[in-house]
Every structure is written in structure tokens, then in C-alpha cells.
Amino acid sequence: MPRIWILWTFALLGALVGVPVAWAADSAAPSFYKDVLPIFQHRCQICHRPGEIGTMPLLDYQGSRPWAKAIKAAVVARKMPPWFADPQYGHFREERRLSDAEIRTLVSWVDAGAPEGIVPDVKPAPLPWPEGWNIRADEVFQMPKPYVVPAKNATDYVYVVIPTGFTRDTWVTAAEIRPGTRAVVHHALAVVRPPGSTWLKGARPFEPYIPPADGSETGLTGDPNSPAPDTPQTNDPLNDPVSMTYELLAAYAPGAGAQRFDTDHSAKLIPAGSDIILQLHYTANGKTDVPDATRIGIEVTRDPPQKRFMSAVANSYKWEIPPGDPNYEGHGRLTFGEPVELVFIQPHMHVRGKDMTVRVTYPDGKTETLLSVPRYDFNWQLIYYLREPLKLPAGTKVEVTAHWDNSANNPFNPDPTKAVRWGNQSWDEMLSVPMGVIVDRD
Ligand code: HEC
């Protein structure tokens, strides 16, 4: 009897004290619709909606509420949204870094019990996200039959040659690669192979193809742009560390979605008679064979653009990272031989990548840091679009400084006892900065 009495007293006390406290919290707590949803709309939904890479949709209260605790943890640790540029340098379009005030709003919403809010009628209109393609896909090229990713050991790169059938030069204003089965597509690249090229000459159109390891099928013999004799023979124009000899049309990787080329009246050129080569890097799930049929969509313009959009790459390959070295430094360089407008920068390293800084030196000697990524994360391949295209005069040097952590302290390091060099696989390394540039059309 006395026991029950004590419990009752406590419950009563709790209720008496609890009421005013709840009142105060309620009126101060952020409302989901007024305060939280606008942040999700502008910073999260690009990925967290059906069909995109963030698995749980953050479109409405019902979908978001169960994730409240995880959201707090992810934004406080700045794990979400993925954004690695040091805010000290450069200004970027679609910058997904949360402000301190936005983080405070999300945290106090979660701490208040993630309430829906007292005025549901201030619901903001849902953003008009497209379903499926994020561009106007005028032409879609699809692998006609799926490639079955084996349950285990899916490490070879798979290539698919897709003839465009274009009988005249075609200008492309945007491109997007959409994986068929996201869970197994680690990354995918689409490259324009001009007519007459001997790259992957053994591949039959539309047939998933794994070139022989000796490089005989991927030789660049006869290609005027093939690497100079003193360079490592990768025999692969995509991973030629000296220059990317063919135009990279589009890339897919976590964080790299649809790509637009029409900044400042520009477009990419697909010469008549070209093929599109899809390079697919699959990851086995370890349990079952999984089919994938990845697609690429392009947006075409009939009016020839005023300027041409192209890729340029600052690479370097003359290094060997010593075993165990926690902070090995590498440099990449590129000098523009003609004036360009720089549109985007995409830092690329593998699992030992630690940090990267991209700096330019103008012909007059002035230098400027365009991008600094102090904590590089291989899991995300973000493309940093400058807020405005940056005019770089002929002779401007791009200088990349990067560090790798080849020590046992790097949790992603597959083998700290190994010296590491340039290579395709994620246990090899890269130091590569593809950039989108606009040049004179002719
Ligand atoms: C560039 C794409 C992208 C953006 C932008 C993004 N996310 Fe994510 N998010 C992901 C992906 C991909 C995952 C991993 C999903 C999975 O493993 O299923 C993820 C996972 C999460 C998780 C799961 C917990 C964790 O830490 O792994 C939370 C919570 C989350 N995101 C919240 C957010 C919030 C809140 C925002 C906006 C403020 C946001 N994300 C913005 C892509 C994104």
C-alpha cells in the first residue's frame, strides 16, 4: 500500500511540474514546417528523396520524424550534408554546408522531441523535384541487357560501348548517369570515343566488356594524344595520368549527380559518329548476383553554343607513397595554354587521400587558393561548382597539393605495409583533379 502511494505522489508531482515545463518548451521549440522542413528542402532533399542516393526521404514529417536522433548526430558532427570545402576559400554554387544557426535549429527541434509544430498551416509548398531524370533527357542510352554483378570479387572495370548513331556533331547542355541498381554501382563514367579510335576495339556494341589484363585491347597505338614514352603505360585514356585524352561526358559517384554544361552559353561536343563508352566500377554485395542496367541521358541543344565546355585534368603520377607514411605529400600541375573560364573542380584521390588544396598562379605571379579540402573522404566524390565561372588568362598555372595517410591509423587503409603507386583500383592511389572549363568554341 505505501509503495503505491509513493508512486502516485511522484506521478502527481510530475504532472504538476511537467505541465508548465512542457508549455515553455512547446512555444520555444522550432516547428517542423516553419523551421525544419525549409532546411531539409534546401540542403538535404537533393539526395534524400525517392530514387536518389539518400535512402530515407526527408520530404515530410512522417518520413523525417523516425530519423530525428540520427539527424541531430549527423549534423552536429557535420557528417551531413556531405561538404568538405574549407569555408575560408572560394564561393560555391549549391553550397551544402549548414550554417551554425541551421544546426542549432535542427538540434533544438530534436531536443524538444521533434514536434510537428503548432501551426501546421504554415506548411511550405513542396519543392518541385523531378521524378527520375534531373535533366531534360532528350536522348537516353541504356545497356540493353543488364550486366550481372557476381556476388563476389567484382573488382574489374566493366566497359560498355554505346554507339550514338549521331550523323552530325551534337552539342550537349547536360548529362546524367543513372545507375540501374545503385547498391552495386560504385561509380560510373561516360566518355566520348571519337570515330576511328582504337581504344577498346575488341568490344562489341552494347555488350558489357572486360578488356584483357595485358592491355592489348585497350592500347592507344596510333592515337596522336597517347602519353609520352616516359610515362607509365596504363593504356587507358581514362586513367592516363598525363592527360585525359578523350572527353569525359559525365560521372556518377556518391555526391556527383547530374552535370550541366550550359554555364555561360556553352555546351559539350559529341562529334558525329562517336560512341559513348560507359566505364562501370561495381561493388559485389557478397551475397547474391545482382543485375544492373545503367543509363545515361543527355540534353541536346539545336542551336550551336557560343562556347565549348571541356574537361581538363591536373594530375600527377610520379610518386610512390612509402609504407606507413602518415602524411606523404604529392603535387599535381597544369598550365592552361589558352584562356579558359573555370566552372568546377573535382578533387579525386582514393582511400589513403587525406587533404587537397587547389591553387592558381596567374601569369603576373599573383596566387589564389580556389579550394581547400582539409578532410578528404573517398566515400564522396563531390563536384565543387564555383559560384561564378572564373576567367583564367593563358599561362595560368593550377597547382594541387595533396597528402596521403598510408599509416595503420587510417581506418580505410587496406595495407599500411605496402608502397603505393598510381592505379585504377581503390587500393592503388590517384592524385587527380578533373575540372570543367569553358573555351572558345573553335
Ligand atoms: C549529397 C547527397 C546528400 C545530402 C545533400 C544529404 N545527405 Fe544524408 N545521406 C546521404 C547518403 C548517400 C546517406 C547514406 C544512406 C545510406 O547508407 O542508406 C545519407 C545518410 C544520412 C543519415 C543516416 C545516418 C548517418 O549518419 O549515416 C542521416 C541522418 C542523414 N543522411 C541526414 C541528412 C540531413 C539532415 C541532410 C541535410 C541537412 C542530409 N542528410 C543531406 C546523402 C546525402
Account of the protein in words:
- The chain is α+β, with helices and mostly antiparallel strands.
- It folds into 3 domains: 20-122, no CATH class; 132-305, Jelly Rolls; 307-442, Sandwich (Jelly Rolls).
- Helices cover 14% and strands 29% of the residues.
- It has helices spanning 2-28, 32-43, 61-64, 68-76, 100-111, and strands spanning 139-142, 147-149, 157-163, 170-178, 185-193, 248-252, 259-260, 266-270, 275-282, 290-292, 295-301, 307-315, 328-335, 340-345, 353-361, 367-373, 384-392, 397-404, 432-440.
- Strand 15 and strand 16 (367-373) form a beta hairpin.
- Helix 2 crosses helix 5 and helix 4 packs antiparallel against helix 5.
- The N and C termini lie far apart (94 Å).
- Residues 1-26, 219-235 and 239-244 have low confidence and may be disordered.
- The structure holds heme C.
- Residues 43-44, 46-48, 53-55, 67, 70-71, 74-75, 79-82, 96, 98, 254-255 line the site of heme C.
- Heme C binds next to helix 4.
